[in-house]
Amino acid sequence: MTPQQYVQDKAARSGSSFYYAFLFLPPERRAAITAFYAFCREVDDVVDEVSDPSVAASKLAWWRQETAQAFAGKPSHPVMLALMPCTQAFGIEHRHLAAVIDGCDMDLQQSRMLDYPALQRYCHLVAGVVGEVAANIFGRTHEQTIQYAHTLGLAMQLTNIIRDVGDDARRGRIYLPISELQQFEVKAHELLKRESPWGYSERFQALMRFQAERAHRTYDEAMALLPAIDRKAQRPGLMMANIYRSLLREIEAGGFQVLHQKISLTPLRKLWIAARTQVQGR
């Protein structure tokens, strides 16, 4: 299996909404974003799939070494072998990959977010930087597009957090800020148990509505930041935004039933949303 086949398989198997946006890119940009996404999946899987924290920390340390060696001209992992030929053309730097690893390392160091500024710092590493790299690959010409990409990354990560409340709780993690749990009188142990009837209490519903409203505001802020000159090039990002926002609306319409299940859109619906965005340009 070639490095290119490896990253393609990694992206396709993930079932992520990102994959559907990649399909509409020209080959060279699709190759770059697929390789970068595969890198993100590799390091994220370390945290999600390795149960022993010390083993996970060792694996992240290996990835730190691998990325440093790759930018020194000595990549060894298939992901880095696929990614490195794309770095110069699309402005992918070592600091970008290091930030993603730092974000995953935060998952190992803490299982709670004290307040929203703490959550924002985490989202900057695992989503904002990813958005910046993606925007560069898609074709960025305006400096403000970076701010748009970071804001959109934040909105999408906030959506992920809403969707994954139950899944994260199963792993002992709570990304909803503790200060906001206190504000709505939702107890951490209620989330961690993921049980009814009080699991879906009015307090929980109010907390989740608050989270969803903030995510929607963040999507609106991102769209307002996107310069007209880059709108066509950034269409893949708009596809992802529309897919994620549709997911958020689906979760809202279902009454935030996220403690016992992981809500998702069907592959066909994701593809339809991506195709519609391609045609409409928004």
Taking Cα atoms only, what radius of gyration do you get, to the nearest Å?
Answer: 19 Å
Helix content range: over 70%
Roughly what is the average pLDDT, rounded to an integer? 92
Report the biggest beta sheet as strand number plus sense, adding barrel if it closes. none
Distance between the termini: 37 Å
Sketch the topology as an H/E string, one letter per element: HHHHHHHHHHHHHH
Q: Label the structural class.
A: mainly alpha
The residue ranges in which pLDDT falls below 50 over 5 or more consecutive positions are none
Structure annotation, total helices? 14
Please state roughly what percent of the residues sit in beta strands, choosing from under 5%, 5-15%, 15-25%, 25-35%, 35-45% or over 45%: under 5%
**C-alpha geometry:** globular
Top keywords for this entry?
282 residues; mainly alpha; Farnesyl Diphosphate Synthase; 2 domains; 0% strand; globular
